Putative ATPase with chaperone activity (Rhizobium pisi), 205 residues
Amino acid sequence: MALANHFRGTQVLSRPEPSIRANAAILPDLAEIKGQESAKRALEVAAAGGHNLLMVGPPGSGKSMLAARLPSILLPLSAAELLEVSMVHSIAGQLTGGKLSDRRPFRTPHHSATMAALVGGGLRARPGEASLAHHGVLFLDEFPEFTPQALDALRQPLEDGECVIARANHRVSYPAKFQLIAAMNPAAAAWRASRATPAPAARAA
């Protein structure tokens, strides 16, 4: 009724105020890390330029700890970015109480995640982790453990900034401009390289 009166000119509705979700948890801070000066410098350069980053180191060297602190040195979402992020999260059913958050998304899918889980899909073509990380960070730990199909599916979002999901009766495009941070162990890197390098030809005696 109030809306009808507003359009008739008999009542003026007040301008709606956006509701920002209170951030209960404090972000892990990069300043908490002692040492690791080269790694912290790499994170700062990546944050300043929006660069993707691959961290290679033995287990327990702090790769995941460093990645979790990247959002603490990223700028807050602008008004336009906040609206885009909130719309994607609303479609995915992850907007709690309809309230917005000015924090940049930080998504950490497990290495068993399927291609549909990363780029989107399902019966209703819901957004995947790449779109849920829009204007934020997508962290892939144990990088070589992801299936080749899942990693290949991230090529288009990295190049075009969107995930396109095609179905028989419709085509959906979700934004996916994210910063990719990956981590892996040196042993896994060497194993992958050995599989990619062809074996030398045998010589006749």
